[in-house]
Amino acid sequence: MLACAVRLLDRGLFRVGGQDYADNGSYGLATLRRDHVVVRRDGAAEFDFVGKGGKRHVREIRDPDAVRVLRTLRRRHGADELLAWKDADGWHDVRATDINAYIKETAGGDFSAKDFRTWHATVLAATFLAERGVATSGRATARTIRAAADAVAEHLGNTAAVARSSYIDPRVIDRYVEGEVIDVRAVSAAEPGATIEAAVLDLLRSHGDSRLSDPRRRAMPKKRPSIKNERKYEALKDKGMSKERAARIANAPKSSEHGGKRSGSGGDASQGGTTAQKKAAGRKGGKATARKRRS
């Protein structure tokens, strides 16, 4: 049963769903009810439920093994929740903690249900960017990145901002800004999913250890740097630049607004200086002329 739950996480991009979801009228995989899924005659399972934030989700799963288990669970009597397992004592509902514990034990690392959504969001973004191709201008790059985030958000059922900040690996975006994408032309027709995932993994590993490949080195949220020029910082990020690089540019010392025109107190007042300095210089020049005339 837990293996089927993990298969559904992988195929349907579900949130795992704690009991607090159901208490608030929203659902995740572990709290889905039997009436949230219909097994159709064509062999597909269709999920229709309200998820986090009150957003409706419709998912279609075409996986023979998973559908076979779902069909059995749908036939259960006297139970509301969908996922459950049976032993000598009867049926037991599957909880989010059960799913996460199974993932951690089976994967042999500190993985959880969220890693499935994170990985698929990264693959979807990398594929979208590769299909669009490398942009030829900063504005076009920014538009394509925003479109990729929108597309991923549609699959995940959240906002583009959340998709980009919490799910899409930032290295995919950084590589795109630098003109590097996966080669979708090399995708195998027999196993397109596996080929694309391998290409994305190579892209991430070629630029340092991926947070997805080693949970002990998973990227942690970074403290936001202090920014001197917020407007410039946001504009650079909108163009697709990484936060670190945008911060360095936005914090760079500003050049003198007056260029070389400003002179110090010892400079030639007629060539620079403030208005007060020029007036003072004019008065001194007038007094000197008057003294010469009297002499």
Protein described:
The chain is mainly alpha-helical. The protein has two domains: 2-107, Topoisomerase I, Chain A, domain 3; 114-217, Topoisomerase I, Chain A, domain 4 (Orthogonal Bundle). Helix content is 49%, strand content 8%. The protein has helices at 2-12, 19-23, 64-74, 96-107, 114-132, 138-156, 160-167, 170-177, 192-205, 230-238, 243-250, 275-294, and strands spanning 37-39, 45-50, 56-61, 84-87, 90-93. The strands form two sheets. It has a three-stranded antiparallel sheet with strand order 1-2-3, covered by helices on one side. A two-stranded antiparallel sheet has the order 4-5. Strand 4 (84-87) and strand 5 form a beta hairpin. Helix 6 (138-156) packs across helix 7 (160-167). The N and C termini lie far apart (113 Å). The model is unreliable at 209-223 and 255-274 (pLDDT under 50).
Shape: elongated
Enumerate the spans where pLDDT stays under 50 for 5 or more consecutive residues: 209-223, 255-274
- Please identify the structural class as seen in this structure: mainly alpha
Helix content: 40-55%
How many domain regions? 2
Question: Considering the protein shown, what is the CATH homologous superfamily of the largest domain?
Answer: Topoisomerase I, Chain A, domain 3
CATH class value of the largest domain: Alpha Beta
Could you give a short account of the major beta sheet? 3 strands, antiparallel
Strand order of the largest sheet: 1-2-3
CATH topology of the largest domain: Topoisomerase I, Chain A, domain 3
- Proportion of residues in extended strands: 5-15%
Specify the CATH architecture of the largest domain.
Alpha-Beta Complex
The SSE string, one letter per element, is HHEEEHEEHHHHHHHHH
Please state the CA-atom Rg, rounded to the nearest Å.
Answer: 31 Å
Average pLDDT level: 80
How many DSSP H or I helices?
Answer: 12
